[in-house]
Recover the amino acids of this structure.
């Protein structure tokens, strides 16, 4: 699975959009980009995933560049409850998949009043 | 509430004790996972089960012994642990092992080994 690079930490004002970047320059054609978050001392929570196209759900939007070497997770209106560590993970999805999620250090997002 | 429950939520044990962590999922999933999260470290995958069969052991010491009696339940039996084994132990499940399916995590068991 390809490696990802994320900033260590970011701040965002409450009510504003939070844009979390992720670099995955060695991503393969069959690898998906997944985002999870972990609020302090809780289990990680799935947010969104995508392959090539931009994706949106009730939690966030995922923008993947055309060359797929980077992506951005967007929380459109951040609240204090969005303060968490956000993990960008690249993972093969298919019959050969072992189910493995490889977590890095992630980005600590601090939403401030 | 993710549909994955873990008990106990907190556990303190001595190095000579034997204890077990329990995970239960109410989602009808077929794959289950144990992860370990030590302080200041990323989550590490420990074991993977698919339809009750172990498919991955990520070089975990034998003092950790998993058991998966059915697709809904996963146990982690602990014996003669070391203080460095103190960590948050997380269970997760997914509908299938392969495919795009996301993993649903439980709240974790905070383990302290004295």
């Amino acid at each position: 699975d390809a490696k990802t690079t994320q900033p260590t930490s970011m701040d965002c004002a409450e009510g504003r959009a939070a844009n979390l970047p992720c670099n995955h320059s060695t991503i393969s054609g069959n690898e998906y980009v997944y985002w999870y978050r972990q609020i302090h001392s809780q289990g990680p929570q799935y947010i969104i995933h995508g392959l090539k196209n931009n994706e949106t759900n009730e939690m966030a939007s995922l923008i993947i560049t055309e060359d797929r070497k980077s992506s951005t997770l967007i929380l459109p209106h951040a609240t204090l409850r969005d303060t968490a560590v956000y993990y960008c993970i690249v993972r093969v999805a298919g019959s050969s998949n072992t189910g493995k999620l490889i977590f890095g250090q992630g980005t600590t997002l601090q939403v401030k009043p | 509430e993710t549909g994955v429950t873990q008990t106990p939520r907190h556990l303190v044990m001595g190095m000579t004790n034997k204890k077990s962590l329990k995970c239960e999922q109410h989602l009808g999933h077929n794959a289950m996972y144990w992860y370990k999260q030590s302080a200041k470290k990323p989550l590490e995958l420990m074991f993977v089960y698919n339809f009750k069969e172990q498919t991955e052991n990520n070089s975990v010491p034998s003092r950790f012994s998993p058991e998966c009696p059915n697709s809904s339940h996963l146990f982690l039996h602990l014996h003669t642990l070391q203080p460095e084994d103190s960590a948050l132990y997380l269970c997760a499940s997914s509908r299938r092992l392969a495919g795009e399916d996301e993993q649903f995590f439980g709240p974790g068991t905070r383990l302290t080994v004295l």
Notes: Chain A is about 0% helix and 45% strand. The longest strand of chain A covers residues 84-92.
